[in-house]
Amino acid sequence: MSQKPNPLSSIKVNGPIPAHLARSVIEQTLRSAILDGRLPCGIALRQQDLADLFGVSRMPVREALRQLEAQALLNVVAHKGAVVAPLVQGDAAQTYALRILLESEALRLSVPLLDTADLEQAARYIDELETELDYTEIGRLNRLFHMALYGKAPNKRLLKLVEDGLNEEERFLRFNLEAMGLGKLSQEDHRAMLRAAQERDVEGSVKLLTLHLNRGVEVITQYLNSPEAQSRNNPK
């Protein structure tokens, strides 16, 4: 019987890691590997294996895993330790309801503070989304567009929660957009939100965001109820 490949073999570590950077390097390296699928859902990450891979003690590994758990990228499971989380956790409608609350507040705080450079950058992300065909890039650009509009919100803890939600969505879209069969993604919602932000119409932009996210949850919920999605996102 052939031995299963070790998922950690896809992670390359370049030279010794300075002790004061160890936690950050491990966190960012594992985060990238989870987001791009090199570390797939359900894979258990053993602290000692990671310590050996990065050439460090278990302490910075433990701290990095704790940070990734806080970002909903890992779950701690009895007898298995840290396990790469499923692509979608819990009820999609509840997840999006929370996103609407958090992102609406971030947008409300940010719009009055956006400058010309912020708005021009958001417009460039839309232009790129119009022509992009790679699903990985579409998820990334979608996250960057939203953060361009939210980024001036002065509440940094709120922005951290918002970005965690967008990271989760990016990871889901990366692996499911093609299977969802949506075809060319319309950017009308994004353009309408940008126009409202340019006009400093705070409540109008929030209303458009709410409509946009509600449309998203309808499409995703319908897809998640399909047998294909359940087998893809909840591996045994």
From TrEMBL:
The keyword DNA-binding applies. Residues 20-87 form the HTH gntR-type domain. Keywords: DNA-binding, Transcription, Transcription regulation. One of its GO terms (molecular function) is DNA-binding transcription factor activity. It comes from the Bacteria. The keyword Disulfide bond does not apply. InterPro entries: GntR_C, TF_FadR/GntR_C, Tscrpt_reg_HTH_GntR, WH-like_DNA-bd_sf, WH_DNA-bd_sf. Pfam families: FCD, GntR. SUPFAM superfamilies: GntR ligand-binding domain-like, Winged helix' DNA-binding domain. PANTHER family: TRANSCRIPTIONAL REGULATOR, GNTR FAMILY, TRANSCRIPTIONAL REGULATORY PROTEIN. This is DNA-binding transcriptional regulator, GntR family.
